Amino acid sequence: MSATHLNQSDSTNIRGYYSFTELKGLYYGPGSLATALPKFLDSLGGKKALIITGKSLYTKTDVVKKVESVLTEYGAYGTTFYEIGEHAPVAGIRKCIQTMRDSGADMIISVGGGSPIDAAKAVIYFLHKEHGGEILPHVAIPTTLSAAEYTTGAGFTDDDGNKVTVSDPRLAPAGIILDAELTLTTPDRLWLSTGMRALDHAVENLYRPLVPPPVKVLCYQALADLFKYLPLSKAEPNNVVYRQKLQVASWMSLWPTKYEKYSPVGLSHLLGHKLGARYHIPHGITSCLTLGPVVALKAETASQEDKEWLAGALFHLRQPSTGSVESDILQLSKSINELVIDLGLKSNLVQYKVPKEGIPDIVERAMSGKDDPTFPRVVKLLEDIYEQ
């Protein structure tokens, strides 16, 4: 085949597209909240901010109070909405939209994990859809490693318990603050499991459609840092340096990218979305369940190019090659499973009351039907981890 007949699906090595998101700036470092947030207030022109967060973070820690204090000092504090639940139920988003209207706020500050950050994006999406005009500025201050702040989509749970996603290139936050000191109150299990979610991003970006090679190389470094610093952070949970390293690794795992057209997530994420929304399993835990087995399946089903990207991870993990691409991928799968165990995060579907007879339906929803030839193998994949 001549070069003139190649298209994007033939090879991501030599043809593709890349553009940055609407992100105006990202500040990182312990203690950066106090200096970074005022700079964003000035650059984004916000006069009154609505904080969107979760109930536990608001009532059990002083993290949100610190953000409120900075906003108050600069005369930009509006109010705080803290009724965003896990997986961002749409009822909370509706209530938040009304709070936004009532407060007269002209910008949003999301504080917490993936649920409040995605909820903030969903609020912005629905308000813009209703009224048009400029997209509201959004500054994300994450306290987990879920990496929701780097995407242009927002995931939430509808009234029937299904995962729903809305997407717009303009939904990416305009500002991000990675202040590791604000993560010290994050529960260990949540911190470490969202680190596995970041690992899931990094691994799946090695074979996800439309991801350009430079981003894949960033994912290799993310993998190396996540494998190194997650166990260190577990051993020393108050070590701010380790936590800051992990926040940067999470950033590299899902580098802000504006795709020319929608790029679907990988199989581990697809399964996790359906399991998480329906059975109330935290997304970090779904990654612990599905990522290792999905990588093992890719050793058989992935394209040759995707296999080579996956196998290349061993070099960055400072592990020797086994001698074949497929065996290297299986070794990567094994290393992921061992990391889950080392972090104390091993679980199974029985613990979350997932009925075994419901597995084919979960897979059918994740794969948008049964036409994919790998459908039976993915069903078996979940059945194998049912009581692992």
Supply database-style keywords.
388 residues, alpha/beta, Rossmann fold, Dehydroquinate synthase-like, alpha domain, 2 domains, six-stranded parallel beta sheet, 15 helices, 8 strands, 10% strand, disordered N terminus, Alcohol_dehydrogenase_Fe
What would a concise description of this structure say?
With 388 residues, the protein is of the alpha/beta class. It is 50% helix and 10% strand. GO terms for molecular function: alcohol dehydrogenase (NAD+) activity; metal ion binding.
The gyration radius over C-alpha positions equals: 20 Å
Structural class: alpha/beta
- Taken as a percent bin, the fraction of beta residues is 5-15%
Separate helix tally: 15
Remind me, CATH topology of the largest domain?
Dehydroquinate synthase-like, alpha domain
Low-confidence stretches: 1-11
What is the number of strand segments? 8
What share of the residues lie within helices? Answer: 40-55%
CATH superfamily of the largest domain: Dehydroquinate synthase-like - alpha domain
Could you say which overall geometry the principal axes of the C-alpha atoms support? globular
One letter per element, helices H and strands E, the order comes to EHEHHEHEHEEEEHHHHHHHHHH
Could you say what the CATH architecture of the largest domain is?
Answer: Up-down Bundle
Which CATH top level class of the largest domain fits? Mainly Alpha
Number of domains: 2
GO molecular function, one term: metal ion binding
Domain Alcohol dehydrogenase iron-type/glycerol dehydrogenase GldA: 27-179
Keywords: Oxidoreductase
Domain Fe-containing alcohol dehydrogenase-like C-terminal: 193-373
